[in-house]
Sequence to fold (156 residues):
Amino acid sequence: MGKLNVTAEPGKHEIIMTRDFDAPRELVFRAYTDPTLVPRWWGPGSLTTTVDQMDVRQGGIWRYVQRDPAGNEFAFRGVYHSIISPERVVTTIEFEGLPGHIGLQTLILEDLDGKTRVTDLGVFQSVADRDGMIASGMEGGANESWDRFEEILKTL
Fold:
């Protein structure tokens, strides 16, 4: 249904991504916060994602490990700062391969008469960190993840 829109204004510390889904926001919230569903959509399809930890509550931690076909691992982790079901999730995110570069991610779910607009606001510690994320191919990976997320929603 939706197309990912990415906004990254030059010189700013943030990336804003939005996409509409043809599903009620309660279902979108569930798919985003259910540790049995996250491996089915998080990250590129060429990688296998494992949820190592996912304690969806304020102060809870999460950690996902991705593996490529050669067995290389890429881990991401963070802390949940706010959970307001089904409206908002605020977490930190850190790629363990580049420790100390921590972003703050706010996911906002907006009800659109039975459909849902997801706004993902990522704020980085520096413009350089933000630009590095963009240069890493983040937009292509986000597109693929959200396409897979949309397919999961159709099955729920």
In short: The CA atoms of residues 76 and 99 lie 10 Å apart. The chain has one domain: 5-45+84-155. The chain has a mean pLDDT of 95.
